[in-house]
Amino acid sequence: MTESDLLLAYERIKEPFFTKRRFKHADLVKLLDKCSFQKEEIGQSFEGRAIYKIKLGAGKTQVLLWSQMHGNEATATMAIFDILNFFAASSNSFVEDILTGLTLHFVPMLNPDGAERFTRRTAQQIDMNRDALALVCPESKLLKKLQEKLKPAFSFNLHDQNVRYSAGATKNQAAISFLATAYNEATDWNENRTKAMQVICEMNAVLQDIIPNKVGRFSDEFEPRAFGDNIQKWGSSLILIESGGYDSDHEKMYLRKLNFLIILKALESIKNDTYKTRTLADYNAIPTNQKYLFDLLIRNIKMDGEILDIGINKDEVNIDNATDFEFKSTVEDMGDLSTFWGIEEFDATGFVLSPLSEFSQLLTSYKVKKEDLGRLEFEKKANFALTKNGELCYLVLNGEFIAVPS
Ligand SMILES: [Zn+2]
């Protein structure tokens, strides 16, 4: 199936339950109840939540894919259910080829306790991706055991990354990033790692057609405690996929669709060995992830008589028992930020920055708290007013622009 065939199919089969990234283990269990493929409880999390593996296909090449090792990185978990729906609903040579050539093992939500709180770490407050050697977490032991038992030819380690990574030193957000993880300090290329790199090139080629220049590559520095690095070392071709940011797609529904597409195309390529034509030069052509972005960059604003730029980031804070979120803004940098970009930018040429306290009467209608009326400060919340020729034009409240009618 071509890319466009798969994207068309996606609209028919995508799992309708998912409309946002914050969902819990109980939701996953309900979806698995409907799933007709072979399911196995492979163990439990620290707090006793069941962790499942779904098996499809009967081919000789074993492929292991797991998601949400970090509890707040849920994009690929949604994509896994889309892929399961796709395999359940489709009967064509594309699907038959994959399922006769490969045996797929999916472990969605490896860290259900973290997912419950929508936090990175496990219930033991441990970053599971630094626990591949110590194996303090029961979830880590499960993954290690699975790796030893299945000896997968290929492993997919599915994560989400900070939305503020750019693809190279550009203004382009890295929507998806890849890494063929290193297996030693010297970051050598053995056969395993080379295969992982080649499959990544296949996925990158698919993405460059759809989101040109918005794909990044992680630094391949060896991390001796991480699962990716160790699984590569233990003999599986390990592919890291990180879903980043895509404009205002905060719930990452578009990135979920891209995950669906590239994982299926990767499986097709593994089955047909087509990845083998890709070279290290193709891989090195993917720009590395860089930190050149703010969520909001206000350029050329006049503050205390001088012109400067203000870089503001807006981080998600969980609310309503981690079923939803709100943004918390922080002034991340001030001064000459001409070497940076904003995911959102505002050219404030001609505007003057004033503290909200100058307009306190007006603010009763915008429900601003008293503590937010102070001067704009580095590392504090982004609250201020923009005036032009002495007239109030905008309020910026917690990093959000509000136009004030004149
Ligand atoms: Zn992660």
- Secondary-structure element string: HHEEEHHEHHEEEHEHEHHEEEEEEHEEE
Tell me the overall shape. Answer: elongated
- The beta-strand count equals 18
Q: What is the CATH class name of the largest domain? A: Alpha Beta
Would you identify the CATH H-level superfamily of the largest domain?
Answer: Zn peptidases
Q: Tell me the CATH topology of the largest domain.
A: Aminopeptidase
Instruction: Work out the helix count.
Output: 11
Q: Proportion of β residues?
A: 25-35%
* Poorly predicted tracts of residues: none
Roughly how many Å apart are the termini?
56 Å
Mean pLDDT: 96
**How many domains make up the coordinates?**
2
- What percent of residues adopt helix (DSSP H or I)? 25-40%
Structural class: alpha/beta
Radius of gyration: 23 Å
- Largest sheet composition: 8 strands, mixed
Strand order of the largest sheet: 1-2-4-3-5-9-7-8
